[in-house]
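Problem 12. The chain below contains 277 residues. Write out its predicted structure in token notation.
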Amino acid sequence: MEAAVSGASPHRTPTTRNFRKPEWEARVRFPEADGTGRLSQAEEWCEILEDGEWKRLRFHDYGEIYRRPGLYEHLFYGLLECRSPSRVVALLDEVRREAGLDGDSLRVLDLGAGNGIVAERLREYGMPHALGVDILEEAREAALRDRPGAYEDYLAADLLDVAAETRQRLSRFAANALTCVAALGFGDIPPRLYWNAVEFVSDGGLLAFNIKADFLEPRYTHGFAALIRRMIDEQYARLEASRRYRHRIGIDGRPLYYMAMVLTKLKPVPESLLVEA
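Solution.
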């Protein structure tokens, strides 16, 4: 997995935004270092001031965060400087341009869509056709509230157990690309769920995602890293581009590095490639 291209499109520059929200500026705080060691990324939390009281929220309590307008952007994109949607979409944009694909021809299934930041980036790069999927109804409601019209459709659905209506809507969308940003590697999206999503992408379609760089090390012999490794090694997918970059900073200020990757799905991926933990 060593191919690399530059992460910025020479044709389009994403909009620069100030994600800090004045209404949250004095109402979010991080825990102070207590000398007992760093929190792991999966354990990070903050406190928010509501109704005169400080309440603790784990970073993975996405439903609680999405319910509060502006908090997700202020926390992750303002204070912690997350840039993954721009990085992953820029890499996808470069790959599709090198392949001679028009942005309007891509139909992107956005897995773990949250409140729609990836769809916003896709539109900035000339890829306006996206369908969002997230297991949380709170995510769907937040996307409709914060970015109305960003998606052609948005499903609050569990792709581990795909309901008939969900399958019909996904099949009708006819995706030829799949994005999954900042949602892999910590159990939020299990490998089997990702594999199910890949089934809805046509052969020859593009798979764009990111994952913590450490998780791609050879010592990780199961889970998502193993699935991707096997897909490439056994020629069910072809690696088009990869780039290591700073995903965001931790609550202690340390950089957290991820790998953005784009693959081409060459043929249907068999279930036998899954290696469960």
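Discussion. The chain has two domains: 22-79, 84-273. Students who got a different answer should revisit the alignment rule from Section 12.3.
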